[in-house]
Amino acid sequence: MATFLVLTLLTLWSFSSPVQAEIFTSIGQMTDLIFAERELVQSLKEYIEAEELKLEAVKSWADKLDLLTRASTSDPEGFLAHPVNAYKLMKRLNTEWSELESLVLQDPSDGVRYNAELTVDDCFDMGKLAYNENDYYHSVLWMQQALRQMDSGEDAKTLKADILDYLSYSVYQMGDLPRAIELTRRLVAIDPSHQRAGTNLRYFERLLSKELRDLGRSQQEPADERPIQLDTYERPKDYLPEREVYEALCRGEGVKMTPKRLSRLFCRYQDGNRNPRLLLKPMKEEDEWDSPHIVRFLEALSDEEIEKIKELAKPNLARATVRDPNTGVLTVAHYRVSKSAWLEGEDDPVIARVNQRIEDVTGLSVNTAELLQVANYGVGGQYEPHYDFSRKDEPDAFKSLGTGNRVATFLNYMSDVEAGGATVFPDFGAAIWPRKGTAVFWYNLFKSGEGDYRTRHAACPVLVGSKWVSNKWIHERGQEFRRPCGLTEVD
């Protein structure tokens, strides 16, 4: 477009300038204008072609996005249940719409790519995010994937040198000097002028030489001659054993449900010691675990109740908080990723009915319980291993409530989850999977009031789907005659 305008202005200036007036008196000179006009026409055609290509790219992008938004708006939660869809939505809103604006306002380009898979650039962005959080283990995994896809021939805006730069330093942070050296040498081979790579390489080699001297041996094989292993890397050595168990349980591995234990699990009808509200329709109850005793109540919530609870909670959903053990104040924490809202019995008859049902089936008073907490875990949403009760070194955790410690937890599952989202207990190897409309219940304290440390549990990351739960934390006060104290510490 700029070329066309410049030529047009030059031509107009030629016709209007007094200095050039004599050109009309010479046919020989006027023939030059014929060719100049031909160049103008060619420039105009090129401009039209470029604009058509740009418009075609914009139209193609709009058509794809139109199809996408039709699918996403027909079932928003189902669409966002796929982790790639959720990631792509955030990326479009943060970067790709800006790219489209540049496309419209500036030169034509290839448009914005749109697909249902993570690209090299996506993997690189995820790796950088982990790197900036000092999470070098996951930075390595993402950078390896970006490099693998690039080496397979996938086009990308990201430079291979940038991937190797992040990957080599992350590997160094993971403690693997030989591999950091081989990756850095590969980076130097691609970009010899990369100043940081050269500095890092010399530093890594000095460290490795020192380590080898300290070990009293020589390096048997040059680092740059070893094959690059991109798909095998161990977890950090400082991973706690609990972390290993927690992640395994979330994958469905390591569940310690033996035939002997299974034989001790039963199902029954729970009438709450002949509670009038449960006589005609007792609650179906199943044992999930024998010791500590965890039960699941079936048909604990109807679909209508679930939808009403979600409807009431959605306007008030905010980043979920945890209670600071030192101050008792609610605060956000990196180990809990979800949004939550608190509902009172006075908010709606459905909430009052649910609270009453919890009291009926557990036999515990909810008058001193915390409000019904509703939580939504999106893709990646999780709550790392934690206790629901306060420990002896946290005496003020619930002091402001004046209702004592959390004696029990009642957890409603308000959705099924396609993948992930289990409630796991690393101490004894249990995994309880969400089933819409059911609820699980366990005691956090022994009858003596001592905490049952076996109940440390976690909400596994949601991999595909959306997880909705609501929970009631029941406190000690008001349970004196409903659950009398035991005579021993573990009663």
From TrEMBL:
Cofactor dependency: L-ascorbate
Documented EC number(s): 1.14.11.2
Regions annotated as coiled coil: none
TPR repeat windows: 161-194
Localization in the cell: Endoplasmic reticulum lumen
One cellular-component annotation, GO: endoplasmic reticulum lumen
UniProt protein name: procollagen-proline 4-dioxygenase
Keyword Magnesium: no
Role summary: Catalyzes the post-translational formation of 4-hydroxyproline in -Xaa-Pro-Gly- sequences in collagens and other proteins.
